[in-house]
Amino acid sequence: MDTDDLSPAELRVWRAFPRGETVDFDAGADEDTAWGPERTVRARVLRALLLNGPHEPGEIAALKLSGARITGTLDLRYATVDSVVRLSHCRFDEVPDLSGSQLSYLNLSHSELPGLSGARTRVDGSVRLSGCRFHGPVYLGGARISGVLFLERAELSAGGSAETALGLNQVVIEDRLCASGLRARGRIRLNGATVAGSVDLQDADLSHPGGTVLDAEALDVGTNVQARRLRAQGRIDLRGARVPGRIDLLRATLSNPGNTALRASSCVIGELWLREGPPIVGRLNLRRSQLEQLDLEPEMLPDQVRLLDLTYTFLTPHEPVERRLPMLTRDGGAYDPHGYEQLTAAYRRSGDDHAARQVQLAKQRRHRATLSWYGRLWGYVQDAAVGYGFRPLRAFGWLLSLLAVGSIAFAVDHPPALKREEAPEFNPVFFTLDLLVPVISFGQEGAFAPQGAQQWLSYVLVLTGWILATTILAGVTRTVSRQ
């Protein structure tokens, strides 16, 4: 490019490039010169510098601008750029196109852009977009970044009719994704992305009401997803994600009324933290996921919770069983025995066997509602008699009560003996026990014949005794099988 065609501002940039010096157009600028000709640089001049710019022996060329207005399209499609590119606090009139390019380092921090196109870009170092304001979509799908992708405090808007504000689908980041304080209006795509380090979304504010605000299906993260104080309006989709560390949603606000707010189904996660935040508005879907630890406060649970085939080893914090059971009844009325078994196992691992028995009792009662009328009737009998085997002392209470009633009734009016000469001395207590306990005989039942009301009482005692014996046996068998 002929330097005679360059403006004074462009000439400053041209001369600074070979030595890697910074050209700061913000220094000494006032309102009269804001974004005027004194700080305007054409994009094609920057392209010429990056592709065929001058070099000086012993110096490292670099494009370092601050506070410039860049007109035209910065077109670096499929270009190989060895120099550092730092265009901070700049204003772009057109969307830069970096698709398929190979860069060593890219820094657009605190710049204002109508968007960014960088699909399949390769960057040997980091990409800094911290504090940027994008008025249109940012597409980096399929990009490979050897360093860190910085998006702290960036502001993104899908713009126009576009739905996607940030496209990071299939991206490979060999270090971290730092996006704390990110503000996005539109969809963020992380589906199929691989991040070797952590993903930081702390204090981020994401909004796409009625749609998917964070599409992260099959996301593969090397360590943790930090999302404390995240505010998300729309659906967060983590289906099939793999996070060996922790997904930290401490004090997060998740809202998607009438639809799914958080979908983390079929995931493999080390720890999932959902605590200290307001109740989730919308559905929570954790179906078929595998978690080492589920750190969940009951207060954050929404009205609809999908837990079918969810597997977890530890459930924290330790809560009374009455506060945990409601989450198993919010799956659209469906009965899921696996959910009760998981909760039972979690209580047993924490050493709370009493709570584990209460969960099993709740499981039997929930199952009872799915049976036919006679199955429900028999279930009510087992529940009233021995609490499905989880409250065996209740059977002794029934036994003692019936023994007292029968003993008093037969003591007031002795039943006549069948054979007076051979009958033993009548004992109302052991006569009642003979009727109640079907497997033990004290020689009283066969020697005396109750009549009238006493005969009906004896029938009731015999029938009740058999029911108690059957329910106790069923409860003992169930207890032994669980062990």
What does this structure look like?
Helix content is 26%, strand content 27%. The protein is α/β, with parallel strands linked by helices. Strands 1-3-6-9-13-17-21-25-28-30-32-34-36 form a 13-stranded parallel sheet. Strands 10, 11, 14, 15, 18, 19, 22, 23, 26, 29, 31, 33 and 35 form a 13-stranded parallel sheet that branches. The longest helix is centred in the last third of the chain and has 30 residues, at 453-482.
Note the topology:
Layout: H1 8-16, E1 22-24, E2 40-42, H2 43-52, E3 62-66, E4 69-71, E5 80-81, E6 84-88, E7 91-92, E8 102-103, E9 106-107, E10 112-113, E11 116-117, E12 122-123, E13 127-128, E14 133-134, E15 138-139, E16 144-145, E17 149-150, E18 155-157, E19 164-167, E20 172-173, E21 177-178, E22 183-185, E23 187-189, E24 194-195, E25 199-200, E26 205-215, E27 220-221, E28 225-226, E29 231-237, E30 242-248, E31 253-263, E32 268-274, E33 281-285, E34 290-296, E35 305-306, E36 311-316, H3 321-324, H4 337-349, H5 353-368, H6 373-386, H7 393-412, H8 428-436, H9 453-482
Parallel strand pairs: 1-3, 2-4, 3-6, 4-7, 5-8, 6-9, 8-12, 9-13, 10-14, 11-15, 12-16, 13-17, 14-18, 15-19, 16-20, 17-21, 18-22, 19-23, 20-24, 21-25, 22-26, 23-26, 24-27, 25-28, 26-29, 28-30, 29-31, 30-32, 31-33, 32-34, 33-35, 34-36
Helix pairs in contact: 4-5, 6-9, 7-8, 7-9
